[in-house]
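Hey, I'm writing a tutorial for new members on how sequence and structure tokens pair up, and I'd like a real worked example in the thread rather than a made-up one. If someone can provide the structure for the chain below, I'll link this post from the tutorial.
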Amino acid sequence: MARSKLNKKKAGYYTKLFLRSCLVAVFVILLSLFGIMAVCFCDSLYNESKGNDKNPLLNAYVIVTESMVPTIKVNDAIVVSRVKNNSVKIGDVITFSSSDKYFNGLTITHRVIGKELNESGNYTYRTKGDNNIVADTALVNGNKIHGKVLFKIPKIGYIYNFISFIL
């Protein structure tokens, strides 16, 4: 009987330890997210006050086509980070505003497969979706790039679509 009581005591101790650890982990994650949001907010305020027309430091998008399958699937969310034009490399996955005659102005996420220096001394990029057979017809100017993909969050688009449907 005493042994059983001791085991229950140990189990209660480990349960409390586990729950406290989970609580601390959630707190650290929320604190980190708050810090990131504060930095992004301050960056946007600073750029607005200086009259800079820069993209946000971080941004998020939900993928709606299969052009990047299997790397990024439909309804995956991606987080992109602002980049300088000359820091984009071949192989990077970027998000940009298309200047293609069929997709003009749409936000697209594709992989960089070529980089060229134009006559004005700026880089332009050839892009292609991983699931597409041919490269995009229009080159991407550096000023059209929203950012480079940092990471993806699978299936978040379902939640976004559900909330959009309700509202």
